[in-house]
Amino acid sequence: MSNENSSAPGPAEDAAADLIAQLAHRGQVDKAGNPYIDHPRRVAGIVRANGYGPPYSTVALLHDVVEDTEVTLTELRAVFGPTVSEPVDNLTRREAEAPEDYYARVLLSEVSLVVKHADIQDNTSAERLAALDSVTQERLTAKYVSAVAHLGGPRLPSRDSEPL
Q1: With CB atoms 3.0 to 4.6 Å apart as the test, which of 43, 44, 117, 142 could cross-link to 156 if both were Cys?
Q2: Structural contact between residues 141 and 157, judged by C-beta atoms closer than 8 angstroms
Q3: Distance between CA atoms of residues 104 and 81, nearest Å
Q4: Which residues are catalytic?
Q5: How far is residue 48 CA from its own chain's centroid?
């Protein structure tokens, strides 16, 4: 696996990230009661479907582990180096953080921005929203409309499109 002195993440790092996420999210469920690990795996799938491989897909698999589990940024940095840990840090909400500050940090790197767009795409999918009660649907829809506005638009750019 990569460390701070090695090359960019590759398929082995994605496999390691998937295992770390699976273990870290073990026992967690989403708002609809499904295994939480399905979410970061779907986000990584969206990233890959848009032409992005590692480190984008690696970060996608790990995007919620620091915020929602006991895994630390220091641990991720030791395993994957800053290429992965810094975008994960950008995607990790701080306690009592204003949404504007969070979105400004997401915009600091192309990797975190691409992963956040994929995260929003998964969180707002018709299938996921249909599994929730109407109050939760409305709250999340408003949250993600605001997020998209802060992030500069609703699209997850294809790897072949113009740079962000």
Answers
A1: 117
A2: no
A3: 22
A4: 67-68
A5: 13
